[in-house]
Structures are given as structure tokens and as C-alpha cells.
Amino acid sequence: MNVRIEPRKPTDRGGYICMPLKKNVPEGHTGWKPAKCPACGRECWTDPARELLVRTQGAIPLCTECALGKGERK
Questions:
Q1: Which residues, in sequence order, are bridge partners of residue 45?
Q2: Of 4-8, 15-19, 22-26, minimum mean pLDDT range
Q3: Nearest residue to 49 (alpha-carbon basis) of 22, 15, 18
Q4: Domain residue spans in the chain?
Q5: pTM, rounded to two decimals
Q6: Are 74 and 4 contacting, i.e. CB atoms less than 8 angstroms apart?
Q7: Nearest-CA neighbor of 19 among 67, 73, 71?
Q8: Could you give the CA distance from residue 50 to residue 69 in angstroms, rounded to a whole number?
Q9: Are 7 and 49 in contact (CB under 8 A)?
């Protein structure tokens, strides 16, 4: 599998944004809130920075596994 992962730029629009899975980061971090992946329903984390990118850039939030899977199918 060859998936390109890079930081978002201010000019980026659309695409996918990874939400950390609770199974990988059980305790989360300061400021993170529980969320569910809209594609598979697994327990994830979100934060204000991710939510801002969803609102301003139209990014689609997915759990890390779903986001990687989307990149694999391109």
C-alpha cells in the first residue's frame, strides 16, 4: 500500500482528516472530545482544530483506519 499522508495546507479543500481511534489512544489528550467515525461508527477522538478544518475546508472526518482505506482505493 502506498498512501501519501501530509499536513493540511491553508489552501486545501475537501479530503479526509484522521480522527485517532480510542483503541489506539484510550485516554485521549487535553481538549479532545469523544466522537464516532461517520463511516464505521467506531469510537474516536476529535478536537477543536479538527472541527475547524471540517467547517472551513470541508474536510471529511474519518477514523484513521477508514481514512487510510480511502487513500488505498484511489
A1: 34
A2: 4-8
A3: 18
A4: 16-72
A5: 0.79
A6: no
A7: 67
A8: 19
A9: no
